[in-house]
Amino acid sequence: MQKTGIASLGKFNLIKRLTDTIECTQPSTLKGPGDDAAVLHHEQTETILSTKLFLEGIHFDLTYTPLKHLGYKTVIAGISDIYAMNATPRQILLSTGLSKRFFVEDIDELYDGVKTACVRYNLDLVGSDVAPSMTGLAISITTTGEAPKEKIVYRSGGKKTDLLCLTGNLGAAYMGLQLLKREKQLFEGQPDKQPQLEGFEYILQRYLKPEARKDIIDTMAAINLIPTAMINLSDGLASDALHLCRQSQCGLRIYLERLPIASETFSIADEMHLDAVTAALNGGDDYELLFTAPISSYDILRREMQNIDIIGHLCDPAEGAFLVTPDNQAIELRAQGWK
Amino acid sequence: MQKTGIASLGKFNLIKRLTDTIECTQPSTLKGPGDDAAVLHHEQTETILSTKLFLEGIHFDLTYTPLKHLGYKTVIAGISDIYAMNATPRQILLSTGLSKRFFVEDIDELYDGVKTACVRYNLDLVGSDVAPSMTGLAISITTTGEAPKEKIVYRSGGKKTDLLCLTGNLGAAYMGLQLLKREKQLFEGQPDKQPQLEGFEYILQRYLKPEARKDIIDTMAAINLIPTAMINLSDGLASDALHLCRQSQCGLRIYLERLPIASETFSIADEMHLDAVTAALNGGDDYELLFTAPISSYDILRREMQNIDIIGHLCDPAEGAFLVTPDNQAIELRAQGWK
Predict the structure, then answer these.
(1) ipTM of the complex
(2) Which of B120, B151, B182 is the last residue of a domain?
(3) Fewer CB in 10 Å around end: N or C, chain A?
(4) A20 is in which domain, residue-wise?
């Protein structure tokens, strides 16, 4: 198929093409794409706002990331921040910088993924901008949400004896990425070889097409549980747990044997001579939720939220933030550096 | 002075350094930087939301753009969209991608400019993210504002006989940029030569450190004038006027002799053998406001807003969108392409 140059279409026709078929369905969207700004009406709720920037070569590698998946994942990353405030995501705005090697059909694919996520999570795309880029692809996403004031959960509300709870499992996206990197290297050496990805569908999906934990937020609402503190796991458990406990002015204990790690994550780590626990602690890109709840909610957590793990607890700040191994060694938690 | 590497400080300490001294003062800011998302409370007003992406090599050239000015200008570009909705800007969120050649002190400078603009325009910086970049500097800004529903002005409200009004003058920023480009070229040929910028302070300021038209929005509020349609002039008068008249389902006449062009813009255009009118029509980066008002508001516009120009009028869509020269030639307006 002959692809269409962006210059031949022009900036405004491209934006029109990307947004024309979009229908805004959220009652809170007063004005969607097409003006200087979007207009939102959040009645008797607060407006939650987050922004993220994704750059080619740092956050994604297009040799193994399909553009449709990238569009989908961008939205997931954006709304995960909204869920982590115990709020409901409503609108997104997208700006993209496109280098010369991108054609109109490529951007269509990226937007296909974005729109698929919008349908799946009930979001309005209320703003789109495109601009040329001298280098690679740059994507900026702004996400809005709403929540009544009394339901919003900050990182800072944890108490000294609170339970530390985690959704899903850790390190899967990171190991999915390592697998893709390995296959890319092999492919570069022997271009006639097909990548060996069979049997690793789960970790690949966790990296390429993650989901946001809407289900958890819905369950919490249904059982009337409001966490004392919560954070979106995007930088890795170690970094994010440190943010939560520091902002709650608490210390922290995480028990190594409680860390949920999927069997696929273990087996590929084994095969690649990597440490699955390190992937779980520092991998990042998990988009799971880490939250705290009072000890008194132990029973309801066990009964109503069997898909979460209690991986530790907060403690006195003087006791520091440690990972405790089964043989009772305490390893101090550290945030990751600038990669 | 020895500069500090970003890796030695780390991502979270860098964000802390950039945002720690920031005090959020807007009553509508419930939660500023430091959580998964910001929380805003816009009572009995609508939330206005805009996002923009600025990429090195496309939107700015750091050989002649001081980082402090760039930070300032980024904020101006963001809030201009909010003013163009006849709303009051309140909060901004900033994400930056930083390549290896940037040091902590460079980002401090960028943020100095951002903070200066926040003080000048009474804005809260409620979110900051930094990430590495493989290439140049990337800056994404999200801007919020608020306005009562009945005061919001869209691009689509213009009527067939409305006056077309413009703030400030056109093409100055574009000619400022041409001057900077010329001096950069000369400098690259003869590095011992000092750039000749004296006498062109006005056009340089318009390019490097523009202001947003808060004064115009304030005046409109004071005299109780609500434009029928309005747009932020960022892509050039021709493109933006076309947006406004198409979205208002009208045609358009702009009279060439009515276009306000500063004398400095004329004289540098002359010196560089460029056409000042082309700069005025297609230059972009003006950050002026183009708006429409009913003929019946002619008197109040002349009396109370002497700093605006009535450059034309809307008309029946069948009459098309034309620039009319003094000798009555009609030149069809065209939007600019993908640069």
Answers:
(1) 0.92
(2) B151
(3) N
(4) 6-151
